[in-house]
Design brief:
There is one protein chain. With 372 residues, this protein is α+β, with helices and mostly antiparallel strands. Helices cover 67% and strands 9% of the residues. Strands 1-2-3-5-4 form a five-stranded mixed beta sheet. A hairpin with a 6-residue loop joins strand 4 and strand 5. The chain is elongated.
C-alpha cells in the first residue's frame, strides 16, 4: 500500500540519524553469522549460528516496523511466518530457511546499511541546512516507509487472503444486520401502524352500523376516533420511513438531515458536518443511521445533558464521532444496540469503536470508507 502522506520533518530527521548505529550493528552481526553459519552447516555449528542471524534479523525488522510507525506515522503489519513442523533447533532452522519472510528480511538488513549511510548524511545535512530538512527529508522518509512496507510488510498473497477473510466476515455481519433491520421494520409495522389501521377499520365499522339510528353524536364520536387513529398511523408510517431513508437526506445531504434529526432531540446537540464532496448514498445512509441510533441510546440510557456530533471526510474515509457527557460504561456487547451498529458499519467495510469509561465521557466513532 503506498504511503499517501509525508511524515513530520523533525521526526523524520530523528529517524534517519538515530537508526544508523542500529543498522551497522544488524548488518555486521547478520552478515558475519550468516557467512560463518553457512560455511559450518555441515559441522552442525552453523545451525545455531544461522538461528542467531535470523533472530537478529527478526529483532531488527520488528524494531524497524515500530520506528516507522512511531516516527514516520506509517503502520507496517507483521507478515505471516511459516511455523516449524515439530520441536527442536533443526525444525526451527528448516522452517526459517524455507520462509520467504526470512529472505526478505535478510535483503532488507543488507540494503539498509548502504541506504542508512545516505539517509544519515541527509539527516546531518538537514540539521545544518533547515530548508533541506523541511522540504526534502519528509520525501525521503515517505520513500523509506514505502520501501519498508514492501520488504517487511505482508506479501501480496497474504494481503489478499486477509482482505478476503475480512470481506467474508463483513458480508456475514451485513446479512445479519439486514435481517435484524427487516425484523425491526416488521415489528414496528405490526405493533404500530397496523394496530392503528385496525382501530380505524373497527371505528368506521361501528359508525356504519349506527348510521341507520338517530344517534348522530355517537357516529360523530366514532368517526372522530377513526380520524385520530388514521393520523397517528400516518405519523408512525412517516417516522418509520424516515428511519429507513429520510427524504431530506436524499435531497439535501447529511448536513441538513442530521440538523433536522438533532433538532428533534430533547437534549442540546452540537452538529458539525464537513463531507465535501458528497459521499455515496450507502455511506450517507449508514452515517445517518448510526447517528440516529446513538442519539436515541444517549437519550434513553446515558443521562447526558450535552452531545456533540462531528462528521468529516478525507479522500478515502468518512469519520463520524458522537460524544456525550453521560455516565459512561457503554460497550459493544453481542446482541446489543452498539453491536448492531458495528454490523451496520461492516456492511460497507466500516469500523465502529466505542470508548466509554465509567463516569464518562462516551465517544462512539465510525470510520466508513467511501470506496470498497
Amino acid at each position: 500500500m503506498p504511503v499517501t502522506r509525508r511524515p513530520h520533518a523533525i521526526r523524520t530527521i530523528g529517524f534517519l540519524i538515530a537508526n544508523f548505529p542500529i543498522r551497522i550493528f544488524a548488518f555486521v552481526v547478520v552478515l558475519v553469522s550468516m557467512i560463518v553459519g553457512v560455511a559450518t552447516t555441515m559441522l552442525w555449528v552453523g545451525i545455531p549460528l544461522s538461528l542467531i542471524a535470523t533472530g537478529v534479523m527478526r529483532g531488527f525488522a520488528d524494531l524497524e516496523r515500530r520506528s516507522v510507525r512511531t516516527l514516520l506515522g506509517v503502520e507496517v503489519a507483521q507478515p505471516r511466518r511459516k511455523q516449524p513442523h515439530g520441536n527442536g533447533l533443526l525444525a526451527v532452522w528448516q522452517a526459517r530457511l524455507v520462509d520467504p519472510v526470512t529472505w526478505r528480511e535478510l535483503v532488507f538488513v543488507l540494503v539498509a546499511m548502504p541506504l542508512g549511510i545516505v539517509e544519515f548524511v541527509a539527516g546531518i545535512v538537514s540539521v545544518a541546512v533547515p530548508p533541506f530538512g523541511i522540504f526534502v527529508v519528509p520525501r525521503i522518509g515517505a520513500l523509506h516507509a514505502e520501501f519498508t512496507l514492501s520488504m517487511l510488510g505482508p506479501d501480496r498473497t497474504a494481503q489478499l487472503e486477509e482482505r478476503t477473510q475480512h470481506l467474508q466476515h463483513s458480508r456475514a455481519r451485513g446479512v445479519d444486520a439486514v435481517e435484524a433491520e427487516r425484523k425491526r421494520i416488521e415489528r414496528d409495522l405490526h405493533d404500530g401502524a397496523q394496530q392503528r389501521l385496525v382501530a380505524v377499520a373497527m371505528s368506521l365499522g361501528r359508525a356504519q352500523l349506527k348510521l341507520d339510528s338517530d344517534d348522530s353524536a355517537a357516529v360523530r364520536e366514532l368517526i372522530g376516533a377513526a380520524h385520530a387513529d388514521a393520523k397517528l398511523a400516518v405519523s408512525e408510517l412517516r417516522d418509520l420511513a424516515r428511519g429507513i431513508y429520510p427524504p431530506v437526506l436524499q435531497d439535501r445531504g447529511l448536513d441538513a438531515a442530521l440538523s433536522s434529526l438533532t433538532a428533534r432531540m430533547p437534549i442540546p446537540v452540537d452538529v458539525e458536518v464537513s463531507v465535501d464532496p458528497r459521499p455515496p448514498a450507502p455511506v450517507e445512509t449508514t452515517t445517518y443511521f448510526i447517528v440516529s441510533e446513538v442519539l436515541t441510546n444517549i437519550t434513553k440510557h446515558a443521562g447526558a445533558d450535552r452531545v456533540s456530533v462531528r462528521v468529516s471526510r478525507d479522500d478515502d474515509t468518512v469519520v463520524v464521532e458522537i460524544m456525550d457527557n453521560g455516565r459512561g460504561g457503554a460497550s459493544v456487547r453481542p446482541g446489543g444496540g452498539l453491536a448492531g451498529l458495528a454490523d451496520r458499519a461492516a456492511t460497507i467495510d466500516g469500523v465502529l469503536t466505542v470508548v466509554s469509561p465509567m463516569g464518562g465521557p462516551t465517544v462512539v466513532r465510525a470510520d466508513l470508507p467511501v470506496r470498497w
